[in-house]
Amino acid sequence: MTTAIQLNPQDTIERGLELAAAAGASGCVVLVSETSSANLRWANNTLTTNGAMRGTKVSVIATVGAGEGTAAGVVGRSSTTDRSIQELVEAAVAAARESSPAEDAQSLVEGSVGEDWDLEPDETSVTVYADFAPALGATLTRAGKENRWLYGFADHEVTTVYVGSSTGLRLRHSLPRGFVSATGKSGDLSQSAWVGAATADFRDIDPLAIDTELVRRLGWATRTVSVEAGRHATVLPPAAVADLTTFLFWELDGRDAHEGRSVFSKPTGGTRIGEVLTPHPVGLRSDPNLSGLETLPFAVARTSSGNSSVFDNGLSLSATDWIRGGRLEHLMQSRYTAGLTNAPAVTPLVDNYVLSVDGATGTTDDLVAGLEHGLLLTCLWYIRPVDQQTLLLTGLTRDGVYQVENGEVVGAVNNFRFNESPVDLLARFTAAGATVPSFSREWGDDSTRTATPPLLVPDFNMSSVSQAS
Amino acid sequence: MPEVDASFLDLPRFELADAALQRAADLGATYAEFRLERIRSEAISLRDGVLESARDDEDLGLAVRVVHDGTWGFAAGVALTTDEAVRVAEQAVHLAQVSRPINSERIELADEPVYDDVSWVSSYEIDPLSLPRAEKVALLTDYSNRLLQAPGVAHVTARVASVNECKFYANSEGTSTTQQRVRIGPSFRATAIDAETGRFDTMASCAPPAGRGWEYLTGTGWNWDEELAQIPGWLAEKMSAPSVEAGHYDLVIDPTNLWLTIHESIGHATELDRALGYEANYAGTSFATTDKLGNLAYGSPIMHVTGDRTAVNGLSTVGYDDEGVAGQQWDLIKDGVLVGYQVDRRMARVNRELLGTDRSNGCAYADSSGHIPIQRMANVSLQPAADGPSTEELISRVQNGIYIVGDKSWSIDMQRYNFQFTGQRFYKITDGKLDGQVRDVAYQATTTEFWGSMEAVGGPQTYVLGGALNCGKAQPSQSGAVSHGCPSALFRDVRILNTTQEAGR
């Protein structure tokens, strides 16, 4: 076997751009993502699986003239060697030549060489759990002795993204990402509690503290109460608000709204940009430089869609207000769709968000303290759209719903199915707390960079009771 | 008859496997397995008949899983060199050693015969990835334009996902398998918008993804000409249909909708890893716990559900699973009673007394070389009645009901009790006959009550193999493709919600 030589990201990009030019491409972008990750998973008070993985993703976007326009060919591979890079580039150029002119064609983004361009990819390994793993082992042992069951997952990943283009752009950015998600159950499995958190490096995650919080919540379930379905005053903690807001965030597609097929479409045509969505001073903002939620400062797109374009790769991203003062300010746009829809600005997707309510202070516990009679949720699950027109979502409560009387948690209640629209909820909540970093139960595995407040909704629609516990 | 792609066979499968398995053995692993996987995929999307995106991807890598001192260790890498195979084996052993202190259950695996250098290829005619892209885009453009040219259709989205999955597996017991599977998932959706009110709605093709090749898009297994011609009319009728009155109705559910209810309320509920708690933190557990095996009245006595990794054109069909176990078919629910689970080798060994067998039924699968094999769903299917009625005969038995066609929205709780589904089309049934569409319909029920209300299943002539390409499970999350066959079926007295009212409008 003759060994092929694995190329480093910078060489992959330079070689790819050279080969594309030689193959007659009018332009080319090469994206390289180097990822390393390490994870631990546990259930029934013991470790169940683990893993340490490395992955590489190389995407070549070749452009060629096509009639009056420009066509693009996009081809990706999981790694490249000195031999396979040629096949990859040839495939991308051939795909471009086979394609009709791209609707979203633009000049490739221009730029210079970033200061950190020459650096190697950052990495993680199982050593990130040097302190976490022994402490986790102690909690599993403790839970066994106390007749409780623990289940959970810890994941740490570092992705380093390199973007190079035939227009001179050379960008590199490294993104660490981690989270822990932990569930505790009573010995008879009748009660369940959950705690989740995002982290950059696990130095701020203490399994013993997580277990203590699970024990506190399971303690609330010493008394259980049956509550019927209906509209209930409900405190949604930041995790549950993130569960719902993430769906709203995904729906900020400028082209869909412009075409009349989104909750952000104006019935008479065009988008609802400029419309007041809520009487409350709500803000929804993304910013690649948000402290603790840092994300890629430039656009990376391997496909074109209603709000992204492969021609926008490398485009600088900046702070964007999607909603400000309760008013819809922007929808997600590529350069192409911004022109198509007469948007006020080019506002591509930024992979983080902060939902806030001006002037809101306090915590979930403070909202509970102010509630005379109602429910406190832990998190939501299996959320799916039911009606795009209203962005009606369905889903379920999970791992802890509690009854609140006179400002105190007095017991655990059954789970519910809900049918609600996050857009409506922004208009209907009656109290909010301070925005804090949050971890969505359903979407947090993919999107850990969120910050949300707790909210009190006076009439949250619990459509039916779920027997799940 | 397709064969495994020669370019995959040319990869140094055995050389890499030998290096990895030998290194794992040298380091004290009592069991080791090696996978080399190449997944080629293509995603093409058109928006209003214009190519929006076309992407061609290949994921190629290797993985090693070991049992060392009774503990799993797993690692994966991308370089196809013996040095990398050795490094990954060492890393897997290292991870097992690091994890040993927090593992309290020693890993043992059920026995399985050894399969020495065997091959298997799924049933398809034309590998979609072998065709020129222009040819595929031209067909999608044609299909899109048929819809766009119809009155009342404002927008059309067309998408096709194609996958060619080649997998080499070898373990320290002497088994080695090489397999190739092809699957395809087409999607066509038309949107109508009422210019006066701004109300919009959609109508999508009911064609399920399938373990077929490009021939599926040209008429083998689905009648595109007929469906595409009907979609605009169905959509127009839906736009002017009355909103449903919430309440309880008898339902005749078409297989194009029922497959998804089976997936959520039976498929996932009969995964033994969930019943045992291994998914408790993420996808959830199951109400169908092991104490209920053999005695849980899952549904009406006419209910017969099988797990099957051998169904022709099934998305979960394999020759051998990712633990070297041969594909099988078995009962999950018989005469309405829970009688079986989906298991892997570890669960089969630990639960052999419960299951009455010490053999895995072959439900281990990893979605790529970068992921560990987990217990994954077989093709879980509701069997038709041998001489059962047609869909029209089922409808004729209903006085006041709804006939539901096509899937759309789905959600179920983390123990698989409470679910809510919508669909593409809902026809009012009055006095045994269809009485026009209604809209804003969702049905909501509890799993055992719903299946207990099943009064009749259709005959084989109503049977359709539905399915999904993207079933999510596990942490790190993995995506699985799975098929579900079923006939039309009649259910009595099911709760119907009006989704507009649910939204508070």
Helix fraction of chain B? 10-25%
Helix content of chain A: 10-25%
Rg over CA atoms of chain A: 24 Å
Structural class of chain A: alpha+beta
Q: How many beta-strand runs of chain A?
A: 20
Look at the structure and give the mean pLDDT of chain B: 97
Principal-axis shape of chain A: globular
Q: Could you give a short account of the major beta sheet of chain B?
A: 9 strands, mixed
Please provide the ordered H/E string of secondary-structure elements of chain A: HEEEHHEEEHEEHHEEEHEHEEEEHEEEE
Note the gap between the termini of chain A: 56 Å
Quickly count the helices of chain B. 12
Q: Tally the helices of chain A: what do you get?
A: 9
Please report which band the strand proportion of chain B falls in: under 5%, 5-15%, 15-25%, 25-35%, 35-45% or over 45%. Answer: 35-45%
The multimeric state of the shown protein is heterodimer
Please describe the structure with a list of short key phrases separated by commas or semicolons.
heterodimer; A: 469 residues; alpha+beta; 6-stranded antiparallel β-sheet; 6-stranded mixed β-sheet; 20 strands; 38% strand; globular; B: 505 residues; 9-stranded mixed β-sheet; 7-stranded mixed β-sheet; 35% strand
Structure report:
- The complex is a heterodimer of chains A (469) and B (505).
- Chain A is of the alpha+beta class.
- Chain A has nine helices and 20 strands.
- Chain A has helices at 9-22, 84-98, 132-145, 207-220, 238-250, 254-258, 335-340, 364-369, 422-428; strands at 27-43, 46-66, 69-77, 148-165, 170-186, 192-199, 224-225, 230-236, 282-286, 320-324, 327-328, 353-357, 373-387, 392-405, 408-413, 415-420, 431-432, 436-438, 450-452, 455-466.
- Chain A has a six-stranded antiparallel sheet with strand order 3-2-1-4-5-6.
- Chain A is globular.
- Chain B contains twelve helices and 24 strands.
- In chain B, helix 2 runs parallel beside helix 3 (82-99).
- Chain B is globular and about 70 Å long.
- In chain B, 22% of the residues lie in helices and 35% in strands.
- At the A-B interface, strand 1, strand 2, strand 3, helix 2 and helix 3 of A face strand 1, strand 2, strand 3, helix 3 and helix 4 of B.
